[in-house]
Structure formats: structure tokens, C-alpha cells
Design a protein that fits this description.
By secondary structure, this protein is α/β, with parallel strands linked by helices. It contains 14 helices and twelve strands. It has a seven-stranded mixed β-sheet with strand order 9-8-7-6-10-11-12. Strands 1-2-4-3-5 form a five-stranded mixed β-sheet.
Length: 428
């Protein structure tokens, strides 16, 4: 990670400004889309197990809802900031638009560390978050979902609290729910699988066969695990993954030249994606420091952790053999690093296209919940594959036609769609 001060919202605005110039957007449209339409900042009091009361800071940011209800996850993280939530809300707007689903962009967060909280304390935090915004979210307003360090159980607690407050059954209020209470088949796999659906198409453009392609992955949470799983199924080999170690307060990379076994690593991984270092060594993995994942001699890198991971400080350490970067995380590449990648003619699948499988399947769950009707897993994966593949080819065609990078092309498509919706509504 860069040692420089990093503000993800400034990065999101910089990316928007660049494409606004390409599209020659009017000033009113720029002013509307450059900032969130609404923000909620609030305090959540939680009585801890020892009897004390701790006050947590929570947020919900609604960037734009011209194309439909807001959509976006809720992340629990000790380093959460309002600017991170703003940036993620902006990127959600573009993400929904690039895959052409009728939703806008939102995001939520709480400054907390679930590692150090009991299940009861986390439940009270989830219910407290809903109590603070229950009048401003809902099936036809703004639909939350899981994100970093939140899970289906958290979503169920939030749903239950929302239904208690509003006196009814509203399964479409939130997505990422357990299958037993209105969740969708395929939701847990969706983001990681969606990444590999776009990778599969990019490999065709690069004249590479999936069989034998090698990759290094940053992170081993839900997204990374299922990306690794599907990449292996189509013939690829992952030689290195990284994971955050809560005890050591830093990341470690785990390398096995013969290839990582996702099933094997899952047996020694905690619910937050942390791999046990000692047990990994017992299984024959080489344990490396920090961001060694970026230096591996592979065909492809998949950053699948947090924002601000490929920076001007480490972009020069990317292996010479790397041909493709699939951004499974939100905002993993800084603007300065992106310039360096372009100079190397690196093929980059931008984050809000690569990882749009999650929100796409969340949309499927929302539709199913609102209809009280559910699809089987094969139907979900079929619809997901079709949506992701169509979006990838639309971006690739725009990039080729207008001589743009994949990131620029994805932004041109998404921002154009949102700007047109704002215009059609008479907002600008």
C-alpha cells in the first residue's frame, strides 16, 4: 500500500472529471454527478457485554438514483471513513449502469472491528444501523447488501429490525440474505465468478487459453475464494494468494508453485478471510511478507482486497510477464498507478466492470424477493454469465471504436447512461 495520503473519493472524482471532459458534459450534469445526492451520518450506541456503552459512527451515502433505487453494501471496518463510503457509492452508480441494471449507487459503513466484538454486540450494531436510517432506505428507495466484514447473518438481523419498525414483511429491503430467509442461489459465488467471466473473455482478446494461465490473487475473502475456484475450474492455476493477519496487523502472501488449493486453504481460513500462517506452512505453503503477491511471475494479477493497493510505490514491482489485471476489489489502483499501467500497455479489466457480478446477483435477489419467486442456481449463473459477458463486450467494443482504455470505455458507457437518465427526468 502507498505511504502517501490517499483519498478514494478524490480518485473517484478525478476519474469522473476525465470522462466528463471526454463526453463534454454540461456544467449542471457535472455538478450533479460529481457529488452524492444525500448523505446520512449518525451515531449508534451499543451496550457491550461488559455493561459499558460504546458509540459507533455510521454512514449511508446515496450518490444517484436516477436509474432506480439505490444499491450498495454495508462494510464494517476500523479504518472506515466518509470519503471511502462516498467513493464506493459513486462507483456503485457506475457499476449498476455499466451492466445496465435499473439501480442507482449507494454505500454504507460503520467504523468498527468485528474481530473484537461478540456476536451479540455485532447484532446490536446491525439493528442500531437500521434504526438510524429506516426512514431513508427500503425496497423502493435504497437496498443494502453485505460488503467487507459483513455477512448473511448480519443482513438477516437488519431485515428483521426493518420489518419490526415498519410492521410488515419486506424481503426486498436487503440482499445477501441467508438462503433460508429469501436469499438467492449463487449469491455468495456471484462476485468472484463474475470476475472470472470477464477474465475468460479478456483471455480470448489476448489470445491466451485458460488452460495453463497463471495468476496471483490479493486477498482470500469471499470474492477471492470464488474467483480462485472458478479460475481453477476453467484450467487456470493460482500460485499465490495474500491474506490479512489480525494478530500481526499486516498482510502475508502464501505461495505454492504447484498451485494453491482453495479447498485446502478454506479449512484454515477464518470467517474474515484470514489464513492461519502456521497451518499454511504445515501444508507446504511458503509464507512471504506483505505485498509479495504483486511481484509474482504470473500471467495475471487479481487484486481482491481493498482500495489503494496498486500504487505509484509498487506498480514498478509488477512482474514483467503480467499481461492482465482483473480488479476484483473496489478502487484497487490509484490514478498515478493507472497511468503507469497504460504506459506498459497492460490490459486492465476495471473494478466496476470486473466485480459487477455481486450487484448483478443482488439485483436478481431483489427481484426474486419482491416477486416472492426464486430461480435455481443454474438459472442464476446463466443470467449472470449473460449479463457480465454482454457488459464486457460492450466495453471492449467502445474501447476499440473510440481508442480508449477499458477503464475509460467503461466510464463512458456508465456515465452516459446515468447522465441521460438525469436529463430525461428533467433534473439537468
Amino acid at each position: 500500500m502507498s505511504t502517501q495520503s490517499y483519498n478514494p473519493f478524490e480518485t473517484a472524482q478525478h476519474q469522473f472529471d476525465h470522462v466528463a471532459d471526454l463526453l463534454d458534459l454540461g456544467q449542471a450534469t457535472r455538478d450533479l454527478l460529481r457529488w452524492p445526492m444525500r448523505e446520512y451520518h449518525f451515531s449508534i450506541p451499543v451496550r457491550m457485554d461488559d455493561g459499558s456503552v460504546h458509540i459507533y459512527r455510521g454512514f449511508r451515502v446515496q450518490h444517484n438514483d436516477a436509474r432506480g433505487p439505490g444499491k450498495g453494501g454495508i462494510r464494517f471496518h476500523p479504518m472506515e471513513t466518509i470519503d471511502t463510503v462516498r467513493a464506493l457509492a459513486v462507483w456503485m452508480t457506475w457499476k449498476c449502469a455499466v451492466v445496465d441494471i435499473p439501480l442507482g449507487g449507494s454505500k454504507g459503513g460503520v467504523v468498527c472491528d468485528p474481530h473484537n466484538m461478540s456476536q451479540r454486540e455485532v447484532e446490536q450494531l446491525c439493528r442500531g444501523w437500521v434504526r438510524q436510517v429506516s426512514r431513508n432506505v427500503g425496497p423502493v428507495l435504497d437496498v443494502p447488501a453485505p460488503d467487507v466484514m459483513t455477512n448473511p447473518q448480519n443482513m438477516l438481523w437488519m431485515l428483521d429490525e426493518y420489518e419490526v419498525i415498519h410492521g410488515g414483511k419486506y424481503p426486498g429491503f436487503i440482499t445477501g440474505k441467508p438462503l433460508s430467509i429469501g436469499g438467492s442461489q449463487g449469491r455468495k459465488e456471484a462476485t468472484g465468478y463474475g470476475v472470472i467471466f470477464t477474465v475468460r473473455e479478456a483471455l480470448k482478446d489476448l489470445k491466451l487459453k485458460p488452460q495453463g494461465v497463471t495468476a496471483s490473487v490479493q486477498g482470500f475473502g469471499n470474492v477471492a475464494q470464488y474467483a480462485v475456484e472458478l479460475l481453477q475450474q476453467i484450467g487456470g492455476t493460482v500460485v499465490c494468494v495474500s491474506s490479512w493477519d489480525q494478530g500481526a496487523k499486516c498482510a502475508f502472501s502464501f505461495r505454492k508453485k504447484s498451485g494453491v488449493s482453495v479447498e485446502e486453504l478454506r479449512t484454515i481460513t477464518d470467517p474474515f478471510g484470514g489464513i492461519d500462517r502456521g497451518k499454511a506452512q504445515d501444508l507446504g505453503y511458503e509464507v512471504l511478507q506483505e505485498d509479495a503477491w504483486i511481484e509474482q511471475d504470473v500471467d495475471m494479477l487479481i487484486p481482491a482486497a481493498l482500495e489503494n493497493q496498486i500504487t505509484r510505490d509498487n506498480v514498478g514491482r509488477i512482474g514483467k510477464g503480467v499481461k492482465l489485471i482483473a480488479e476484483a476489489a473496489n478502487g484497487p489502483t490509484t490514478s498515478e498507478a493507472d497511468v503507469a499501467l497504460c504506459a506498459r500497455n497492460m490490459f486492465v479489466i476495471p473494478d466496476f466492470l470486473a466485480n459487477a457480478g455481486g450487484v448483478t446477483c443482488s439485483y436478481f435477489e431483489q427481484v426474486q424477493s419482491n416477486m416472492n419467486y426464486y430461480w435455481n442456481k443454474d438459472e442464476v449463473f446463466g443470467k449472470l454469465d449473460t449479463t457480465m459477458t454482454s457488459a464486457y463486450h460492450a466495453v471492449r467494443e467502445t474501447a476499440n471504436k473510440r481508442k480508449l482504455t477499458m477503464r475509460e470505455a467503461a466510464y463512458v458507457i456508465s456515465i452516459s447512461r446515468v447522465a441521460q437518465a438525469c436529463k430525461d427526468r428533467g433534473w439537468v
